[in-house]
Amino acid sequence: MKEWLELAQKKDAQDALAKYKKEFYLGEAVHYMDGNSLGLMSRPAEQSLLDVMEDWKQHGIDGWTRGDRPWFYMSEKIGEMMAQIIGAERHEVLATNSTTINIHQTVRTLYQPTDERHKILVDDLNFPSDIYAVQSILDDYGYPDGMVKVPSHDGHTLSTDTIIEHMDESVAMILLPSVLYRSGQVLEMEKLTEKAHEKGILIGFDLCHSIGSVPHQLKEWDVDFAMWCTYKHLNGGPGSVGGLYIHEKHHDVGVSLKGWFGNNKETQFDMGHTFDQAPDISQYQVGTPHIFSMAPLLGTLEMFQEAGMENIRKKSLELTDFMMTMIDAVLEDYDIEVVTPREPEHRGGHILIGHPQAAGINAALKSKGVIPDFRAPSYVRIAPVALYNSFEDVYHTVAILKEIMDNRLYEAYENRRGVIA
């Protein structure tokens, strides 16, 4: 194992992003590998939240328009910062709502069904909340059987060709994940968008497991819409406000869920009973924004701007490649399956390993200071994050996993998930 440690230390010495690790709160002897579920708190995020609280203390209600971070425009300000990460225009991106609410808001607004073309294409591996939202929308529109799920040939990944084969004249809209939340597969978003538009279909993506770890060029690819959470790779904190992208060509559509913060800001406080829809992405807001749930993003997104998404992606791929290579080498005698695609262009920011005793392995890892997460029925997700994980973190994670397998330490734990996996 010594040669693996030396290799990790050599890689860390050459890491241009290593300086960011000290900006995050990491526990003693903890190797945090769950940033694809909840990113860690950073000092910049903490400070920006404290700054916004200070604005409340100093300005009271005038904090909506005074100070360096006026609350009235904070959703748009953070949207502008996220636009740089996903390759979109500032007026097309907004911090608002949650991922699920943004699915409801966006799909209900852009979905224009007819009896001949009313189906919504999703996939068999998507996160449940997305499926619940789409099904409820179809139910409300009177098309309860309108959901079409693209099947997976292996239970872990999706074929681009299979997705395209399901794009027929009955499909009105497509909603897919950019990165599959289990296997970590990256979908071919540009190609899928091109093929969807050739058939007159609107297409959007759930970016929850890609934003902050995988670069995007949504405007260049002509993606119609996207939504995401900000508490995973963006490190916005538990329950931090979601993000939304709507291509400007759709801004003239009457938004479905109307609320006073979707009103034109110039007339919002006229308090008229006729909705004056904002001319840009702001129209997709509903109620008063959750200021303290957005404030940490002001700090954390500055780090992304400074570090650069291309550099983050490069290190992320190197971390996951190092982890998979080491697992192959030192755990070859055990029944551990690396599910995540090996090709860099098809791999997101986490890896998925499978084993019949996965829940027990997950618990044993946590007892040894490694924090991953379990996914039923028999998988462990491990996410080395570019901004705060080192190659030595990866080494120790795999070394501890080897210790657990060598000594069958997982047998000390029940092989089933907790209430929260």
TrEMBL record:
The keyword rRNA-binding does not apply. It holds the Pfam family KYNU_C. This is Kynureninase. It comes from the Bacteria. Homodimer. Pathway: Amino-acid degradation; L-kynurenine degradation; L-alanine and anthranilate from L-kynurenine: step 1/1; Cofactor biosynthesis; NAD(+) biosynthesis; quinolinate from L-kynurenine: step 2/3. Catalyzes the cleavage of L-kynurenine (L-Kyn) and L-3-hydroxykynurenine (L-3OHKyn) into anthranilic acid (AA) and 3-hydroxyanthranilic acid (3-OHAA), respectively. The keyword Hydrolase applies. The gene is kynU. It comes from Salinicoccus sesuvii. Pyridoxal 5'-phosphate binds at T99, T100, F127, P128, S129, D130, D206, H209, Y231, W260, T288. It is an enzyme of class 3 (hydrolase). Signal peptide: none annotated.
